[in-house]
Amino acid sequence: MNFNAPLLRPIRILLVPISILYGAIVWLRNRLYDTQVLKTTSFNLPVICVGNLSAGGTGKSPMVEFLLKHLHKTRNVAVLSRGYKRKTKGYSLANAGTTALEIGDEPMQFHQKFPDVSIAVGEERAVAIPMLLHDKPDTNVIILDDAFQHRAVKAGMNIVLTDYSNLFTRDYYLPTGDLRDERASYKRAEVLIVTKCPPALTLEEKQAIEKEIKPLPHQKVFFSAIRYGQPYHILTKNTIELSAETEVLLVSGIANPEPLKKYLHEVADTYYELLYGDHHIFSIDDLKEIKKKFSQMQASQKLIITTEKDAVRLIKFEQQLQDLPLYVLPIEVQFLFGEEPVFTELMTKFITGFKLPA
Fold first, then answer.
1. In this structure, are residues 76 and 139 in contact, taking their beta carbons and an 8 Å threshold?
2. Structural domain of residue 70, as residue ranges?
3. Does residue 2 register a pLDDT over 80?
4. How many CA atoms lie within 13 A of 340 on its CB side?
5. 128 in a domain, yes or no?
6. Residue 6: pLDDT over 90
């Protein structure tokens, strides 16, 4: 047990007994699937699962978007998510009038950025996929968002993400750590991606991490960093350049804001923050708090920065946002060591050479 991992704070160490029980339940559940006491379902089309072994913050959404950018123009792609913290239940297919409250912030983000892609939500993936295929029969590729630990569906391609600052090899079960699956479950993946790496990661550091992870012969390990784009206004979509003279108020409710905070510290004069819980549903009182905090900033050149996930939960206040310089900071995946073509070719070969999983 590595209590020096970034997220294993002292207060969480007191919860070790609960973590041991949690780990035992996870172990038993996996053995039931391994011995086919609990059944998995395969589908006769390429299914790509993007997941992790830890709870939140490893960069699943940017990875799903990366796949969509490379696939949606040549394939009829659909994305199926759980729709975490939505106000609805069961299967739902996004349409022109859909809101984040109905399908969740991440699916709503996909829906807004890729309107030609079918975006659906459903807690039970094995039930939701047939319904999705009934609604969108031309679908020929499905991306499962955050479904690696949900083994009721057997994906043909499993992509497991692990955060550079908290590798699954150094983590421990919830609630002491952030693991929600066994470390050994990484063996079920075809691809492992170490995310949120420093862009200047050295070859020696890369090799040391690969040695620690111990990939199996059939597994490919990639390394990626976050690349930030130009902030755009939440309403007008006009872009702006961040400068060393700009004061920034960061408003965010995401699992791991540390990379974003580090970036703003580097590019802005100074920044303040209002941080909320992951998937926070913003209220009118939150908006008043944001406006109050922003008005207290003394700089003449100032603005508010939020994430794309948060933006889909803030847009409901469209009228109240008219007078605020609220900008959305987009992010995307940047593969390191020139391996983006290797990754995209791997995905293409999987899809074109798809065979029904055994």
1. yes
2. 10-75+140-227+336-352
3. no
4. 13
5. no
6. no
